[in-house]
Amino acid sequence: MEMQNSNPTILNAADLPTRLRPTARKPDHVGIFALPSLSPDFLPEASSDSEDENLLEEPIDEQEIYDIRVVLILDLISDHADLIATISDPEHPISLGELAVVSLPDISIKPTLPNVPDSPLKTVTVLITPTITHCSLATVIGLGVRVRLEQSLPPRFRVDVRIKEGTHSTGDEVNKQLADKERVAAALENGALMGVVAKMIETCR
Amino acid sequence: MAKPQISLLSDLTPPSLERTWLTAPHPTLPIVATCSSDKTVRVYSLTNFKLLSTISGGHKRSVRTCAWKPHIQGESVLATGSFDATVGVWRRWDSYGGAAGWGAAAGGNATESNVSRDSSEEDGNDDDAGEDDEEWRFAVLLDGHDSEVKSVSWSPSGMLLATCSRDKSIWIWEDLDDGDNNFETVAVMQEHGGDVKCVAWHPVEECLASGSYDDTIRLWREDLDDWGQVACLKGHEGTVWFLDWESTDNVPRGSSDSTQWREQRALSGPRLVSCSDDRTVRVWGRLPKDNQPPAMSSSAATGIPSIIRPTGTDETWEEDAVLPHAHELPIYAVAWSRRSGLIASVGADGRIVLYEERLATETDPDAMDTDSTAKLSLRTEWSILAVLDGAHGIYEMNHVAWAKRADRGSDSSEEVLVTTADDGSVKVWTLQR
């Protein structure tokens, strides 16, 4: 398949750092839903410790490649519909598709500020179709998708995760929660909640 | 006339490495406090834009908000609200390290600033202001909220501290000022139907405004020892993220004779500005008491039939204006300048927008029927004065505040804008017009 990225800004490493903090790139065993480490001592990358460095090197690369692939796929998606298959990465057991909550036509990317031609901001909209109508589970899955995308995509992307219209009885409520930056930020710091997110995602397998 | 422009004056350095949420300018000193997700608060100089001290160790999660207590002499008192559900109160003697503690770090040209000269002399034997982590004293931890604290605000007198949380409640605490750092819970209001995102006190009265995830703005006053809701403002179609009050003496531009404006303002008091997830900025005004339509609209405003609730304290607020549309994403903060009357808004689209209010020219007063002439002749129009895209690059902005410009000495009447963003940066801007 010839799906080389023609848009170099996406691969720009300078684009990546803030959301791709070292923790975000550590290998996780929750499938695609990388959860942030809650340990406070993650900030300085311990480059002095060569042993650690070696251990971290490989998984970071792998994660980075995966992240970039997700970005590529999302960015090219409108032109290359068949690429959705590659979202299912053999190294990561759960894919958005396998969760049966996200399908190709429900992912879109558009300029965030259409009236500002040189703005690099793009909005990724992902519509979730909950397989289980249980309200809290839909919120948790949505949170997982949002967290995953925010960690994978460069910070110039604005992530908009919503329940697909008409697929959930309390969709509006869930959407409001998922769109609330402050609630999402607080949820990320809530170890118990993030544990629940991880656990629920496990049960979706 | 050149088009007004927002120009970068300086970054505050070094920045936090994590998201910063809010920057509070000190009421008198040329300093600001910035709250960060890294659980600390950084205090920066507005004179040389450098970090003065870092307040850490008090909170277990993000510090979301902070506010300086007004009207205290010789000491700075900062309240902090955190996602760990607690509110911290911190103290620091302004004379610690002398005026130089703030002033020297403030670039040496701060001798004319609000710091007293006396303390600058004391500083001779204690010039090691470098050990700044020691100088902030952790005074008290206010424990009561069930979940993340979103906003804190001191009343104009500094006697009351309002705090609000995702637990849908607003707490009012009285600072007993007994030298023992005791605070007493005065009231807990639970009328909001969702997270209370922000609280803001009226500039001179003990009247509190709150904005919420339930899309409403509510106003609260004390009536016979009981704090209660006096108005519920509906109009926003999304979370109300932030509120700010107009100054009591604001007069829009374009008025050759401001007497009529001042008279009307004296009756209705300062207005309130709000910003929301619905991408709008709205201005709200109170109808003068003697001008209120009969009970019907009053009950409509509170949603509670006036027969149940005594109307004595109820106030009728109306939407005064929806400011021109200028944001494509949620608007997280709005600030109404006490000096220039300009309103600034920032949000997820990374854009700073400045709005200016002008008294509209009376087009044809004769056409108006006599009843409404007085009101109509005072109609104002809001216009966008300046827009700056990508103020913090690709990052979202969480807060904007107006502060007095301090890098040119204290006699400057100029003001600066201070914006706070997701990448941890805080920037100071001037408006060139």
From TrEMBL, chain A:
GO terms for biological process: protein maturation. This is MIP18 family-like domain-containing protein. InterPro entries: FSCA_dom_sf, MIP18. Belongs to the MIP18 family. It comes from the Eukaryota. PANTHER family: CYTOSOLIC IRON-SULFUR ASSEMBLY COMPONENT 2B (PTHR12377:SF0), CYTOSOLIC IRON-SULFUR ASSEMBLY COMPONENT 2B-RELATED (PTHR12377).
Automatic annotation (TrEMBL), chain B:
InterPro entries: CIAO1/Cia1 (IPR028608), WD40/YVTN_repeat-like_dom_sf (IPR015943), WD40_PAC1 (IPR020472), WD40_repeat_dom_sf (IPR036322), WD40_rpt (IPR001680). Pfam families: WD40. Residues 107-131, 285-307 are annotated as: Disordered. GO terms for biological process: iron-sulfur cluster assembly. Residues 120-131 have a biased composition (Acidic residues). Signal peptide: none annotated. WD repeats lie at residues 56-90, 142-174, 189-220, 417-433. Keywords: Repeat, WD repeat. One of its GO terms (cellular component) is cytosolic [4Fe-4S] assembly targeting complex. Essential component of the cytosolic iron-sulfur (Fe/S) protein assembly machinery. Required for the maturation of extramitochondrial Fe/S proteins. Belongs to the WD repeat CIA1 family. This is Probable cytosolic iron-sulfur protein assembly protein 1.
